[in-house]
Design a protein that fits this description.
Arc Repressor Mutant, subunit A, Tetracycline Repressor, domain 2, 3 domains
């Protein structure tokens, strides 16, 4: 077991003797193996015990329930991350930014199972997202020698974290020089002329079809059910009943529940991108288009279809190849629009921008409003244009 097994966390019985560590570690190892490959709701205490080669009764000597061991694994990850980040304090300024980016990438590469589990935990138990954001911010504030604003934290963390995810789970290369350059100097070469055209838009909602094909009815029914209940809590009978078709009809269009779920994610991708394309003012300069796109994405995930986050996140376990395609589709759109950008690696820049929208939407989904989105986006404009070099000049 890696060093996370030796950490002492809440959720375990304090009277467990010291010589019980091997049994406890076996349970943790089994849980990590299962939770990193399956959605939380799909894993049971019995599954963990069976994988560990232990009886169900032994489990409850160490953990009170399934959630307790899930939380302990997340605590393991946070403690490993905190230990790694604490080593950056010896670096200074520009070197500190590089060390920070490299540390996030290294932790993702070394502990992909823990990262995968945390990514579910940040949705399921949002207090962990708050904690990891604070952990990252503390490290960055030591590097910069000052308190960071909320918009600076989003700018510094969102793009870097998303790039690390894409690098490890989707094999997307990351150019660290480009990341450091974007953080320090910004990405765009032109300033915002006015925020009026960015924010003052009349949103056109997605059109409603009166006549829908049989497969479309099933996909929309599945999306609603999966978004509300999750993949493993929904069966084909429920999907077809919701769509108003016979069970046998399902297999005329889809080979399995998994292939159906992949098509649901394709539908989610199409609907999100179509909504943004329908409402985006393409006559705006490139930076202003980016800011308006962030606003539209935030509005979509908070007000139009909040379930899309959960559907895509669960898809990382159910149909990971399709989720990679989902992000690739967004990346492809970004890489076609490189006007007014600094000379950095365009693939890295595209995923950095996707990451900002992704985490901004997640933040607002759990704790925010469109007014808060406007304020954050207004401040992000400065960072995207000028970066976050210290006012007194950061040394090369």
């Amino acid at each position: 077991m890696t060093d996370e097994s030796s950490l002492n966390h809440s959720g375990t019985d304090s009277h467990v003797a010291a010589d019980s560590a091997p049994t406890r570690d076996r349970l943790l190892e089994a849980a990590i193996s299962l939770f990193s490959k399956k959605w939380y709701s799909e894993v049971s205490v019995a599954d963990i015990c069976r994988t560990a080669g232990l009886s169900n009764g032994i489990y409850y000597r160490y953990f009170r329930d399934k959630e307790a061991i899930f939380r302990e694994i997340i605590e393991c990850y946070l403690e490993i991350l905190a230990s790694r980040l604490s080593g950056i304090v010896a670096h200074a300024e520009a070197g500190g930014i590089r060390a920070f980016v490299e540390t996030i990438l290294e932790v993702h590469r070394e502990y992909p199972d823990l990262v995968s589990i945390f990514r579910e935990g940040q949705y399921r138990m949002f207090e962990y997202e708050r904690r990891i954001s604070r952990l990252f911010a503390d490290s960055l504030e030591r590097i910069f020698g000052r308190t960071l604003s909320p918009s600076e934290s989003v700018f510094l963390l969102a793009g870097t974290r998303f790039l690390a995810f894409r690098a490890v789970f989707n094999d997307v290369p990351v150019d660290i020089d480009s990341v450091v350059s974007i953080i320090r100097h910004g990405l765009f070469t032109t300033d915002v002329n006015t925020f009026d055209r960015i924010f003052d838009i009349e949103v056109q909602m997605p059109p409603v079809r009166l006549e829908k094909s049989v497969d479309q009815r099933q996909l929309e029914a599945g999306k609603a059910l999966f978004g509300r209940l999750g993949f493993h809590e929904v069966n084909i009978h429920e999907i077809t009943r919701e769509a108003g078709v016979a069970v046998g009809t399902f297999y005329n269009y889809f080979d399995s529940k998994e292939t159906f779920y992949a098509q649901v994610i394709h539908l989610v991708s199409h609907e999100v991108r179509s909504f943004i394309a329908r409402n985006l003012d393409t006559e705006l300069p490139r930076l202003e288009q980016e800011l308006q796109g962030m606003l539209l994405f935030s509005f979509y995930v908070t007000s139009v279809d909040p379930s899309c986050y959960n559907i895509v996140r669960e898809g990382e376990f159910v149909v990971p190849a399709r989720v990679r395609e989902y992000y690739d589709e967004f990346e492809h759109g970004y890489r076609k629009r490189i006007a007014d950008m600094r000379p950095v690696d365009h693939r890295t820049a595209s995923n950095f921008l996707i990451g900002i929208s992704h985490f901004l939407g997640l933040e607002l989904l759990h704790d925010g409003s469109i007014d808060r989105a406007r304020n954050l986006i207004r401040e992000l404009a400065t960072h995207l244009r000028h970066g976050i070099d210290r006012a007194d000049g950061m040394e090369e």
